[in-house]
From TrEMBL:
Keywords: ATP-binding, Nucleotide-binding. It holds the Pfam family ABC_tran_Xtn. It comes from Candidatus Enterenecus faecium. This is ATP-binding cassette domain-containing protein. Residues 2-252 form the ABC transporter domain. GO terms for molecular function: ATP binding; ATP hydrolysis activity. CDD domains: ABCF_EF-3.
């Protein structure tokens, strides 16, 4: 559904990622991961058309509807909760508005009747008459009760607004879903409902998330942004992590073997290069040395936190000494010369 071709983006002259070639296909869920500042949300904006790349292109199949999780919680304050969700399919919402406006006209003409009939047919084909019930079902799944569905968005707190915007993105069976941190501010029940929704969804999902459990549950592929590159891996988060660690370890092991071999060859060449009887062997080893390389591991943008505490003195084996402790409460002796050591 989405093809990324030779895509590059630079920010203030520095490359964020370069020469990216990817394909996102129907029926798969792609989890975008990377360190803070690596460019995850930026890449999502390029895919949605909100941001232009420095070079390269993003192409989407014709007649494909894309839905993006909005981030502005106050953008829909003047609308009801249900209307906000239905706006997830803007074409459907506008048809409904125009149709209602025509039927409310006092001077309804024959031309208006023809236009209304066309709109009504299109509205029905798009599932417009089920729109409110579909929107209500999604809202309830995310934990927003029916009693709030006709309230204006401005009456909701930030936590509920986030859920409504997520419902808006999910509404109307879009072909492509772009979700930036969809589990933020969701309770456990809402996250579980979202997991089930995405597992049953047959379109293309591209999601940015730091939630490892969520990525393991819903993702068929992982898209890793690191080393100024974007690479796609088949499998969920844990499979990506194990695979990436395996590759890193294999490179390190090969480098260690090459370093040892280089040292051995250099010592032989240094020792026997002036020896006539060993000169041919020294020359052969020099040719072999020229072919050996140590692969440089690029610096990752990931920074793993570490907290360390340095004790002022060496930690003892015995933690607590209690010697001959006695205690009387209301004239009753509860402890009598108690002694013990906690080790």
């Amino acid at each position: 559904m989405i093809t990324v071709s030779d895509l590059s983006l630079s920010y203030q002259g520095a490359p964020l990622f370069s020469h990216v070639d990817l394909q996102f296909t129907r029926g798969n869920c792609y989890g975008i991961i990377g360190a803070n500042g690596a460019g995850k949300s930026t890449f999502l904006k390029i895919l949605s058309g909100q941001l232009e790349p420095t070079s390269g292109s993003v192409s989407i199949l014709p007649k494909v509807r894309m839905s993006v999780l909005k981030q502005d919680q106050n953008a829909y304050d003047a609308y009801t909760v249900l209307d906000t969700v239905i706006m997830g399919n803007q074409t459907l919402y506008e048809i409904g508005r125009e149709m209602n406006a025509l039927y409310e006209k006092e001077d309804f003409t024959d031309e208006d009747g023809l236009r209304a009939a066309d709109l009504q047919a299109e509205y029905a084909e798009m599932g417009g008459y089920e729109a409110e019930s579909d929107a209500s079902r999604i809202l309830q799944g995310l934990g927003i009760g029916v009693d709030l569905h006709y309230n204006n968005m401005e009456t909701l707190d930030a936590r509920l607004k986030v859920k409504v915007l997520l419902a808006q993105a999910l509404f109307g069976a879009p072909d492509i879903l772009l979700l930036d941190e969809p589990t933020n501010n969701l309770d456990i029940a809402a996250v579980e409902w979202l997991n089930d929704f995405l597992l049953d969804y047959d379109g293309t999902v591209i999601v940015v998330s730091h939630d490892r459990h969520f990525l393991n549950t819903v993702c068929t592929h992982i898209v890793d942004i690191d080393y100024n590159q974007i690479k796609m891996y088949v499998g969920n988060y844990d499979f990506w992590y194990e695979s990436s660690q395996l590759v890193q370890n294999l490179i390190k092991q090969q480098n260690k073997r090459n370093e040892d071999k280089i040292k051995e060859l250099q010592e032989f060449i240094s020792r026997f290069s002036a020896n006539k009887s060993k000169s041919k062997q020294a020359t052969a080893r020099r040719k072999l040395l020229d072919k050996l390389t140590v692969q440089e591991l690029p610096a990752s943008s990931r920074r793993y936190p570490w907290v360390g505490f340095s004790p002022d003195r060496e930690v003892g084996k015995d933690i607590l000494f209690v010697t001959d402790v006695s205690k009387t409460v209301d004239g009753v002796k509860v402890l009598d010369k108690v002694s013990f050591i906690v080790g």
